[in-house]
Every structure is written in structure tokens, then in C-alpha cells.
Amino acid sequence: MISQENGSGTPMSAAASTNQGQRPQPVTLRQVAEAAGVSTATVSLVVNKKKSARIAEETRHRVLDAIRELGYRPNAMAQTLVSGSSRFIGLVADAIATTPFAGQIIHGAQDEAWKHGFALLIANTEGNRELETDAIAMMLEYKVRGILYSTWFHRATELPAPLRESDFVLVNCFSAEPGARAVVPDEIQGGRSATEILLKHGHRRIAFINATIPAPAKDGRLQGYKEALEAEGITFDDGLVLEAYPDQEGGYGAAQELLKLGATAVYCYNDRMAMGLYDGLREQGLSIPDDIAVVGFDNQEVIAAHLRPPLSTVSLPHYELGAAGVRMLLGLEEPQATAPTKIYCPTVERNSVRALAPA
Amino acid sequence: MISQENGSGTPMSAAASTNQGQRPQPVTLRQVAEAAGVSTATVSLVVNKKKSARIAEETRHRVLDAIRELGYRPNAMAQTLVSGSSRFIGLVADAIATTPFAGQIIHGAQDEAWKHGFALLIANTEGNRELETDAIAMMLEYKVRGILYSTWFHRATELPAPLRESDFVLVNCFSAEPGARAVVPDEIQGGRSATEILLKHGHRRIAFINATIPAPAKDGRLQGYKEALEAEGITFDDGLVLEAYPDQEGGYGAAQELLKLGATAVYCYNDRMAMGLYDGLREQGLSIPDDIAVVGFDNQEVIAAHLRPPLSTVSLPHYELGAAGVRMLLGLEEPQATAPTKIYCPTVERNSVRALAPA
């Protein structure tokens, strides 16, 4: 049997003591009890917020004052046992903490979790299935309230088996499995917004350099491009859609073919592609935005704001994806009727687009 | 009082049950006991690895087999109470999870922690002191083995007061406080290596564009540049050192002044600066590396490998910083005699440097 006294204020274990000799000794439950002039059992009841325990308001305040004055730290592990669930939310990430891209998912999830009194337990698995299974097992053993399962780029995913033992929400990915709640970026709306930046500046012959790699973003961003053109009464022309590998080298390589299309503006699948296209267009002696207007997608830090000229683009809502995932996990936000739940991608206008001069 | 039976296999709390109705019911300690034909107390002793308990080897195996077959998950919170310390290492990060830069610190720390049976409890504080204090308090309440306190760029730091209540190591930052162990990048060696890339290609008139912002990197990278020149018998010339804001706009703005110096090569304080300098040099009609060789620092993903031409640079050892921090915290690696402990910055050669043609 474990007594609450042992559980709710044990001194640091021997293993944790170190060469940092100046560290103060942790305050014990007994010291709090002595300072407040009550029994250790009473302190324990106050710390664990036992509703059934009848403790005089005056006594409770005396205990809380002593806790504050002495700097006593209750043992959260023991409180978890008492309350039956922990204040952890697990975040399984394939690589969002380590790629220079989707880290804001963590930021958004953490802010929202903290707001509701939860802490994030993060595991970065680099997409390794074995690590992923271990990470989820660890989270289950720590009795997490639920798990966010997230990927650094938007894609379909196979659920790892142990995930089903917990409440979970998929973030930036989705599964065909019934009941699997998910939040993803609204790629169609994003593609529409990117195209609309160019349309509202008078461009009508707009090329689109799409990715060669199959992905929800590839289909969604093309669909949005078509919808935006249609809304302006412009017939979709398949000949204005190129494909390239979605990085700088792909964008650079697409420059010559693009120039043959006679477009006055181009919308690139992502910012990295736009960065390479800038170099390719410059080598052909063209100036952005005077000779051709360019729009990207992602609003990738380090790149978009720092190209010459700074790039107009559409932002991936990573922070919102993390925050919405937590709200959905905690039952504070209902999933949209048409799954997965889609998050709005905002427009970011800079200087790579100029109004088309009248012909 | 908390019984071990409640503590070591409680069913999910009501709060965790959801609309995901297909979730299997967690296996209880009682089911394991029934399957193994032993008492729940015996299962509990096996799960908690009580050394003092005398349990027949055959019985222990029967229990472990039942645990595996049924998929029983022990309660890590309860095990922590029994063992007196948790298997968590805390990682307090100002912004390393959310800037597109130092995320590999998390990767390295996690890999090393997992290797030794620890999980990371990560809090991203955005440098907010109040959040930081809350995060450390939470970690102390979860009885972490120790805390890594890390920053996204190398700098001196003030220790938050509650950090001293735990064993800790500073990662990518340092403090003058006695006994505060720290791991940081070896900026001087990095600056030497960057300059040596240019020297070994025959360059002798090498400019350095340093940062305007005071930082250990500013002093260290300059010191390394001086040492590398001196080792080749080249007198340091203050007139070859420019200063600019350490981003693309700073590098771009330094191009014209650089050209007045008659240097055949330039070493930039960071890759972002080199990216801007590329644009500035191109506008002046110069070609890299034919007219001038360029070296950066940081090996920043998204940029360095994808410039035209790809940039030779020196890598910040973020992964190693995280891993070394964990090893030091666990007492597996001694701090270097001259604190803080410095981590080697490797050279990454690409195509922005060419051998200097004989004059």
C-alpha cells in the first residue's frame, strides 16, 4: 500500500541529487503540516482537493498559506492516482518539431492545452513505426487525457494500432477509418485565395505550377485555382498548368517552359518553388512583378518574407491546427459535418504582384 | 490511502471516454490475475518489480505471459510513486520547437533520452518568464529526473529561480552561475573552419561580414576567422571586416561595400546573410563562385543547399547539443574542464567556392 504522505511530497530521489550542491532541499508534506499546525492527513486532503473531506475554510486557508510560504510542490503523479486521470495530452509528431516548417502546430497545441490546465507530452518519431508504438505506449502508461497524432505535411495516414486505446485527434492528416476525427488545412480555399490575389490585380492569363508528387495539397490547390477562375468567368485551360518537383530546383527548372505560355502571372504550389522560379526568371532577364507576377503557398518562414521582392502567398494555419486539435480532443469544439474538419488558410500579400497594366 | 491495485491498472476515467465508440476497454489488473491464476497482489509485485518480494520464477513468467497476451498496460504514475522517481526528462525551450532552426536539439535530446529509458516532457515558452516558471513547476511536480534548459540561439541566460530545485543542464546557452553545466556550439572552431574552406582554395584576401548584434557567435566567429588567417601567416586586416544585420536584407545591403574591398572571397556570419548577398552580387553583375567565393554559417535547412549555387557553410550541431545535454544530465558525460562544454561545428562543402585562379 502507498500512503498519501509518501505520495504527495517525497523528497527528491537519491538518483536526482547531483554535483549542483547548492540546490535547496525540497519541502516535505510534514513541514507544511507543522507550519500550519495540522496533521499531514489534513494537508494531503487539501492538496488533493478531496471534495468529500469536510475541512474548515479557515484550516484550508492556513494550509494553503503554508504551502505558498514554504514553496511546497505537490506530487502530480500522486494526484493523478487520486483523481484517476492525468493532466497530460500526448502529441505524437512524425517530424514537426525537427523540420523547419510545421513547428507552430506544437505552439498552438501547447497554448490551447495550457489554457485548460493540461501539459503536452511530445514525442517526435521521425515517422518510425516502432518508435511511434513505443511513444503511444508510454503515453498510455502515463494515463494521458488523449493523443494528438500529427504529421509535418498534410496527408492520409494509417492509424498505429495502439492509438485506438486512447481518445485521439489527427492533426494535419486524416484516415478513412470511421470515427477518426481530424483537422487539416483547407487546401481548396487556399488555392482559391492564392489565385484571387492575382485576379484582383487584373491578371486573367494565370499559370499554375503544381507539384509532381501526389498529395491532398496537389489536388486541393488545383481545385481552388479552377474555382477562382470559374468565379471570374475564365475558362480553365489545362495548358496553363505545369508540374515540377516542389522545391527550389523544381521551380528553377520550370522557368523556361513557363515563359512559352504567355502568362502575365504565375501561382506556385509552394514558396520553395517560387524561390527557385525567381532565380530562373531573373536569368531570363525578367523582372518580378513588372514582367510577371508571382504568388506562392505555405508562407514558409525564412523564405517568403525575405525574397527579392518579398513573396505574396497563402499561409498554412499550423498554429490553428494544433489549437483546434486540442479543442476537439477536449470536446470543446465539434468536428465539422463533412470530415475532416478544415482550417482556413489566410492570404499574406507582399510585393511580388502588381496590377496588370491595361493592354 | 491508495491501494496498488487501484494504482496499477485503473480503467480509463469517464472523462476519457468518447464518441470513438470502437475503442477497446483497457485490460485490468484483475483480468491479468485471473488469467495467470494468481492474486492481484502478486501481479502488482511483478509489475512494480519489487526486488524484496519472493515470487517463484515460474509464477513471475506466468504473470508476464498473461500481461503480454492480454495487452495490459501498467500505470506509469503508480510505478513512479513506488520507485520514487519518474522516467521523465524536462526540456524547457524558448522557441526551438517553433522556429525553423534549432528543432534538431529536440531530436537529439529525445533520441539520447529514449536510449536510456527516459521520455522527454517538452515545454515551449516563447521566452515568457511566467510560462517558464509554470513549466518548470509542472516538471518538478512530475518528479522529472532533471531539466534541459535551452534557447534557440546561442546566448548568455539568467537562470529562472525554480530551475535550481532540479538537476539541470543548459543547452545552447550558458550562465556565469557557479556549477551551472552547459553545452554550446564551438563558435571559434566554426569560424576557423569557415575561413579554412576559403584558404584551402587559395584565397588570401578574404572579407568577413559579421553581425551588428552582440552575441557569443559574433565574437567567436570573428575570433576563428583571425586564428585561421594567422595560421596561414596572413595579417588580420580590420578593413576587411564589415558588419550588417544578420538576415537576407543585411547581406543584400552589404554587397556594394564588399565590392570596394577587392576581396576574392567572403565569409558571411550566417546563411541568411549569404542568401541576400547572392542577390546583391548578382545585381552588380557578379557570378558566384567565379568572380567571388562565398561561405556561410549555420547550414540552415531550406536555404543553404538550395541557393544557386548551393552554399558551402559550417553546420550548427543542434542534434549533438541536445544529445550531449542529456548525457551530461544523466552523468554519462563529464563537462569539459573549461566551461561551458563546446560542441564541434562540422564543415559542409557545396559549390559556392572555387579554387582561385593564379594571378
Task: Write down the CATH topology of the largest domain in chain A.
Answer: Rossmann fold
Question: What is the typical, i.e. mean, pLDDT of chain A?
Answer: 87
Oligomer description: homodimer
First CA to last CA of chain A: what distance? 86 Å
- Can you name the CATH architecture of the largest domain in chain A? 3-Layer(aba) Sandwich
- Determine the number of helices of chain A (DSSP H or I, runs of at least 4 residues): 13
Characterize the biggest β-sheet of chain A. Answer: 6 strands, parallel
The coarse silhouette of chain A is: elongated
> What is the H/E order of chain A?
HHHHHEHEHEEEHEHEHHEHEEHEE
Strand order of the largest sheet of chain A: 2-1-3-4-5-11
CATH class of the largest domain in chain A: Alpha Beta
**What is the percentage of strand-forming residues of chain A?**
15-25%
Pair of chains with the largest interface and how many residues each contributes:
A-B, 88 and 89 residues
